[in-house]
Amino acid sequence: MKKRLLILTAALLALVLILVSCQRGSGDGTDSGSGQSGDAVDYAASVTLDPGSGTLRAEVTVKTYVDGDTTHFNIPENVYETGLLKARYIAVNTPESTGKVEEWGKKASNFTKEKLSGAESIVVESDTANWDIDSTGTRCLVWVWYKPAGGDAYRNLNIELLQNGLAIASSSANNRYGSVCMQAIDQAKAQKLNIYSGQKDPDFYYGDAREITLAELRINTEAYNAQKVAFEGVVVLNNNNGVYVEEFDPENGLYNGIYVYYGFGLSGEGLQILSVGNRVRIVGTVQYYEAGGTWQVSGLTYRQMKPNDPGNIQKLGEGFNGAFVEIDPAQFASGKVTVTVGEDEKKEFDYAALILNSSVSAKSLKVKSIYTTNNETSSSNGAMTLTCEAPDGTKIPVRTVVLYDADNRIITADRYEGKTIDVRGIVDYYSGDYQIKVFSDSDITIH
């Protein structure tokens, strides 16, 4: 009897082990190629690029990665006359990463970039017989197909974002692949992937600051007055207990900047984080600086004992350089830029206002006159304002701090009077005018 009992017990134990093994194998495995569990349907590969569909299509290359559901592509001009197609992906809406940064936004953006940057070929396709435009009036609604390196078939990136839980529905049922899109969404929900996981996004900061981009801050500065914000950028210059931080906006193709005043509240490692060339995460309060007539961010903190505190400034990388984009003088002086705010609202700005506090350069400026600050009680005593003329006749003001030569002597106006110069500096605003502010003699080259 005991022998039979032992045999029965062993058999039951073996059966349990088999069942557990099968359960693990069927539901918890991950396919590194698609991010889906082992028994999931790969909907991105279940549809095919049909050359006889009656839609428009073209092979393209990436010009600019914007975010998870928006990419700018280079496209043949005989297909799309501008040669640049600003693509808004059909059927998907990924969380934001270019304005107000949202949970899973960075992951969705990185996912799209990873798939396209490693692709052997990329094809964009319309959903109808036309290149349909979205509500902004500037972006085409398209399907994006990519062929992975070494692959022999195209995958549909729109559907792949949905099946990985990196996008929510956006008229997902009302298109040629609508049923597949809905199945991909249902599967992502059932598997609780990313957006649908109920878990915290590991790439998102859960602090009391509002997560935004520098472009969002520059476009809607007043809306953030006295608010605590967090954004990323590159430190391009350190001056007067503060740094200039800039970041490229892929949507508008401009660099946006802001002056970040750290005052006397940081020391040691906190100051090291703000070294020129570092890519940083800034956390501080937006305020209007009355004396200068511009906006800045201040109130920075760094808790050394808690380096990952979401309220800390943080170093994200090093070895970066300022852009020092060469300006078009006429555009700098009077140009306008229209940008899309939110989904489809448009606002017009002075070009110089949008690039305020970012690094720029200008070439072949003829110095017409120089004003030197003469006030011995001021730290600006000896600073100069150069009224310059560009080759097209546009007047460009260039303001310097007090400059010193190699022997530590103050440089005076006679060094530049009547000369033609190239300059590198920061876009500044003073007394109603935009100007280029120069902080070192080495940033002025005399022809």
Structure description:
This protein is of the alpha+beta class and 447 residues long. It has three domains: 43-196, OB fold (Dihydrolipoamide Acetyltransferase, E2P), CATH 2.40.50.90; 210-317, Beta Barrel (OB fold (Dihydrolipoamide Acetyltransferase, E2P)); 325-446, OB fold (Dihydrolipoamide Acetyltransferase, E2P). Helix content is 19%, strand content 35%. It has nine helices and 24 strands. It has helices at residues 2-27, 43-46, 105-117, 157-163, 178-190, 214-219, 269-273, 329-334, 351-354; strands spanning 57-67, 70-74, 84-89, 91-93, 119-125, 140-148, 155-156, 168-170, 210-211, 228-238, 242-249, 254-261, 279-289, 294-298, 314-317, 325-326, 336-341, 345-350, 359-372, 384-389, 395-400, 420-430, 433-438, 444-446. Strands 1-2-3-6-5 form a five-stranded mixed beta barrel. It has a five-stranded mixed β-barrel with strand order 10-11-12-14-13. It has a five-stranded mixed barrel with strand order 19-20-21-23-22. The longest helix has 26 residues, at 2-27. The protein is globular, with a radius of gyration of 28 Å. The model is unreliable at 1-35 (pLDDT under 50).
